[in-house]
């Protein structure tokens, strides 16, 4: 007996005669949301139509040919027939069907429903069933609301994320038992098993291991010492951090991890809070990478845009009846990407906001409180927002040996190697044999995951060699030629004699480098747990239908002039809910670009502004989402508590988003004034807000900004932590040394300062 089973997409056929085969299997049911065309949905919204299809139909050779020319199908919901039809086999050239569209279903009752499809050809038949949970569309954001509520009340991000995934899994499964199982074996395991996620985890581990090597070599302390001679104030230190973030423009992951890890010691020394560091790193990572014409984002974004442009050309070709139709927009995906940059209001205004904020030395809201807790009490440990890895550093683990010379090049050279390898591999992985490509062409089609993974490990291996060939004796570097024989005997051994006297040794032996590499990897393991749970949370939000909920809003006949604003707002909330800017772009571009072109009658300004709205809104939502990978990575690299990072960054992101809407997407949609005028007005309002609403971190009166003062008057008191901090701020302004009281929730012991940082502080 010969069984032919074809598992192909809808519309594909296996070349076999229908007369000589009978049905033996109906395959699997797949539901497609009719309103948004999103396939593979796991749940059904109450009173919303879902298209039913069956794929993987199985046939068996029959010795008795049939005379039936049609395949009949019936779709049932909970045992009741809701629709039926047939497929003419003769019209398919008498070939075996592998898939069938089986109508649509609309379910009005909440709860568990069974969808069944029965197929019949002559006397042979087969059926397939699937169960789906039915609930109202608004319930799709329940897991996100639970995550946010628990995160704010319990301050336990791991518990909050896991609970959100568990609740979403129970919503899909319909019961707690199956929900618990799928939480572990479907969503958490799926997050770990995803190839792209594995690349990110390995890249993060390798880079963190390399940072551990740079720390042990004394390079990071040397860099901190040298930069501290110039960046002698918190303002200059923050400016240096922002400059590093802009310099690493080609990838947001590399930006987050590299800028955070390398600038953390310097900003700790300058009493800048970890929350502020994490904000500077996060707010320059995705915004810079997303608008840079040369970055790992470009290829992905351009490909999504090009796919929709090709569809528009095809549609217009049919409408105009010509092979090369005239359309009003650019026909190149990269050209559209380039045209959209000037309408990317959120990343543009965010960059300006950071520059003015650093220059003015002002803050507001939760960030102001975090900064004052660090600056007023001159804390060198990052303040109350420091993460768990700081506890290891405070124990003086992985510190340079006492006789290690502190030299900046032992950090700068590995960083240069890392940037070189990543950039080189970005270009190399985008080469297409036989094509004449520019560097930009290669980067557009490059594999950023491969470049990051290979580049990081290559840089780590080269760094090991760099440290191995540098010879140290009596606290100074010496030439290897004079002590070659003594050095070689110590390459794989300990670095001191039994009496503790220093001897000639490599800067770091192989054993030292491996220990430091493993230490760096181990330090970020707790954050990788959060990252995995964040990925699982994003997957559960899509599974329960959050993407369909937001997408449906866009496709419901909105006027073209509102589309730039709507695309930005929906992208923001979808990225907030799913934790992925790239996923948001992938969902929304197919839904919105073609309707935008039609609704705007080909208006190129509206089309480019909508494209920019999706791209920039995705970044904005990514910034305020506690389940976003870049948010988690920024907190990880800066060793900042994740909830502290989100709660201090969200007000800034919200302000910039409002400016982007009021002076960007709305005016450009209504053609109120030229784009450059909107940008200038936005910059003017940003400057005015910072100087009129924000207040200096250290001020004569210690007053908070108007919003924080209002909260203080409602909830505070004369003996509240905010009142004490306000008084101490005024004392610090007058030059008085303020000692932090324990009732201000001290997270560490300030009197046990790292002696190395103390020496650097004294020297600077």
From TrEMBL:
Keywords: Cell membrane, Membrane, Signal, Transmembrane, Transmembrane helix. Residues 1-18 form the signal peptide. This is Na+/H+ antiporter NhaC-like C-terminal domain-containing protein. It is a multi-pass membrane protein. The chain crosses the membrane at residues 132-152, 159-176, 196-214, 343-360, 409-427, 448-469, 524-546, 566-594, 652-670, 676-698. Residues 755-764 have a biased composition (Basic and acidic residues). InterPro entries: Na/H_Antiport_NhaC-like_C. Residues 289-664 form the Na+/H+ antiporter NhaC-like C-terminal domain. Pfam families: Na_H_antiporter (PF03553). Residues 380-401, 744-764 are annotated as: Disordered. It is found in: Cell membrane. GO terms for cellular component: plasma membrane. It comes from Fistulifera solaris. Its main location: membrane.
